[in-house]
Amino acid sequence: MSYSPSWDLLVFGGTILTMEPGTAPIVNGALAIADGRIAAVGPAEELVEQAPTGEVLDAAGCLIIPGLVNTHSHLAMTLLRGLADDLPLKSWLEQHIWPAEREHMNRESVRVGTRLAVAEQLLAGITTTTDMYFFDDEVGKVLAEAGMRGVVAESLLDFQTPRCSGPNEMLERQRELLEAFHDHPLITPAVAPHAPYTVSAANLVHEAELADEFDAPLHIHLAETRWEVQKLLEEKGMSPVAYLADLGVLSEHTVAAHCVHVSPEDIEVLADLEVGVSHNPVSNLKLGSGIAPVPAMIAAGVKLGLGTDGAASNNTLDLLRDAQLAALLHKGVGGDPTALPAKQTIELVTAGGARVLGLDDRIGMLREGYEADLVCLQVTAPHTTPLYDPYSHLAYAARAADVLHVLVRGRAVVRDRQLTTLDLEEIRAQVKEVTDKIRGG
Ligand SMILES: [Zn+2]
């Protein structure tokens, strides 16, 4: 721990879970922040003694944890929340979601929907999110303005999107995004070919080359449904994972969402190529897609994080709730109560998510030198009393509404359960304007 007279902020009084392997919870701990980074972590009495010059944030009665990392989402789809439920993925997409997007998604509505998603996620303790959508230069801007961290990518499909007439134009927009947000402190630009069944082999290879050129993440949906596996087997003679590996698309920069229908051989490939997998249990359940073999992937050493997916297939962006569901789901399905224990579950939505997104050199743990992205979650309510094991509460008892303060790069974006960078009333009014049109058809 180094003495610093120029701390900007001292968060103190709560129990710190650093999520650094091998470290114990620090009861009555404190965390000093300077220039958006963690300058010191330790017992409160030691840090307070050093008489910091900055502001003080009281976290008594809280668990202080790294900010949650949402590894897969389509942010502006908050505007389509509850528009079409209880349908299989293919008809849900083709008959409801894609027509609504074609008609109603434009730069302005994406801006509005993304602001709603940012508000929802920050209040739920998510400090880093992902977006695979359209007008992602606007998405990057919205996140940066609100002070939220994100990995954002313009989608590429072989057909028209609300923004682009075809894949060549999408590649151009992606390149512009990669250049515009290069070295941005909060925004990591990425490329996002939609899925192996919506993007041609040639375009998948173009995408891998573009990601390589910029050393950027490549975000893709993979092996989400049985239908997709069947289609690839029929057309390419390979599973979706084997097909992408064969094209050279999979690497340590890949963020593969879903991986529900993967064989033991596929899992080996994902582990060998160090592909990051985003597990989206709620979306997979709701669309009836199935249940990803998470314990098998963990056993094989696959990099794993959790994602909410878009709000049209979840229908909230509440990653803590989804983590809690994952912890229960894999126990029940595998008939194994030791699957996904509490600490490992919380690891998936913090350090694990950071690893999946390639940001584990700066976020996902509370350690000196890392960016100060953290959540103070209050554990004084009846449903979190008494407290024996903080990980247990996070995995089984706490709720998003228990989130008290949220910091990203040392900036309090939520303070005493209030957003400091976004006006919720204004967002609600803007959402109403767009959704009135969607309701009208
Ligand atoms: Zn998705």
In short:
By secondary structure, this protein is of the alpha/beta class. The protein has helices spanning 44-49, 89-104, 107-123, 136-146, 167-180, 201-214, 226-236, 240-247, 264-272, 281-286, 294-299, 319-334, 342-356, 390-397, 424-440; strands at 9-12, 15-16, 29-34, 37-43, 55-58, 62-66, 68-69, 126-133, 149-156, 187-193, 218-222, 254-258, 276-279, 303-306, 374-378, 403-408, 411-415, 418-419.
CATH H-level homologous superfamily name of the largest domain: Metal-dependent hydrolases
Give the spatial strand order of the biggest sheet.
2-6-15-16-17-18
Shape, per Cα inertia axes:
globular
| CATH fold group of the largest domain | TIM Barrel
Q: How would you state the average pLDDT, rounded?
A: 96
- How many domains make up the 3D coordinates? 2
